[in-house]
Amino acid sequence: MPIAVISDIHGNLEALSEVVSYLEKKQISDIYCLGDTVGYGPNPNECVELVRKKAQIVLMGNHDYAAIGKANIEYFNEYARMATYWTINTLKEENKQYLKSLPFSHQNDQFLMVHASPTNPAHWYYVLSAQEAQIEMQAFNQQLCFIGHSHVPVIYSSGRAVKSRTYQFEPNQKYIVNVGSVGQPRDGDPRACFVIYDPDEQKLEYVRLDYERQKTHSKIIKAGLPAFLAERLLKGY
Ligand SMILES: [Fe+2]
């Protein structure tokens, strides 16, 4: 049975709704979310409530951690810091309690899932190169590790970084798969990004979906969040 792995929704309800209805049409009900459900975007409550309803597993991301007052946001840039204060003030208590309950990782025989890095899922390191990925691969025994955090879709294996819409995994190889971002892609493509993984066929597919970006843009401006956070959604950076 294929599963969907989504990440970095960042309070973008238009993008998340598009992904959810696509998966419903495809009859894929196994949904895993790698965290950063909130932060930056104008609909943190709605996104928490929808992801909680639809996903089997939801992990803790650094922005979720910040929204429950646990992350040190000194290291956030100005926009992220402003958005964090806004998110803390906007989130309902019930949703904060839910975010507090989220785990940093999930694993089974086939894969490990974390928000940031396999070596230390609670420390929010970025895996940004094939060299870093080689080191990170020592931290898990499964064939695959799914990550998010950088908002850039890429597959790391054997010292290489591969960008491909579809991918066939080889036996006896290890992989780190960055699934990209649903609600704030940063790879120059503004469409929502996530993956569908078929464990039986050992295949991966990146899905890109258009959504009502202009609507999210307007909501961000109306909420008084930094305009930069609205502008970046139109171009995917
Ligand atoms: Fe993120």
Task: Determine the strand fraction and express it as a percent band.
Answer: 15-25%
Number of domains: 1
Q: What compounds sit in this structure? A: fe (ii) ion
**Main β-sheet description:** 6 strands, mixed
Q: Helix fraction?
A: 25-40%
Total helix count?
A: 8
- DSSP strand count: 12
Q: Report mean pLDDT, rounded to a whole number.
A: 97
Q: First CA to last CA: what distance?
A: 33 Å
Question: Considering the protein shown, what is the CATH homologous superfamily?
Answer: Metallo-dependent phosphatases
The helix-and-strand class reads: alpha/beta
Give the uncertain stretches in residue-range form. none
CATH architecture field: 4-Layer Sandwich
CATH class: Alpha Beta
What's the helix-strand series?
A: EHEHEHHHEEHEEEEEEEHH
What kind of oligomer do you see?
A: single chain
Shape, principal axes of CA atoms: globular
Strand order in space, largest sheet: 3-2-1-11-12-9
Any idea of the CATH topology?
Purple Acid Phosphatase, chain A, domain 2
What does this structure look like?
The structure is a single chain. The strands form 2 sheets. A 6-stranded mixed β-sheet has the order 3-2-1-11-12-9, covered by helices on one side. A 6-stranded mixed β-sheet has the order 4-5-6-10-7-8, covered by helices on one side. Helix 7 (213-223) packs antiparallel against helix 8 (227-235). The chain starts with a strand and ends with a helix. Helices cover 33% and strands 20% of the residues. It has helices at 13-25, 44-54, 62-67, 78-90, 93-100, 130-136, 213-223, 227-235; strands at residues 3-6, 31-33, 57-58, 105-107, 111-114, 144-147, 154-157, 160-162, 166-168, 175-178, 192-198, 203-209. It has a single domain (3-110, 165-170, 181-235), classed as Purple Acid Phosphatase, chain A, domain 2 (4-Layer Sandwich), CATH 3.60.21. It is globular, with a radius of gyration of 16 Å. The chain has 237 residues and is α/β, with parallel strands linked by helices. The mean pLDDT is 97. Fe (ii) ion binds at residues 8, 36, 61, 63, 149, 151.
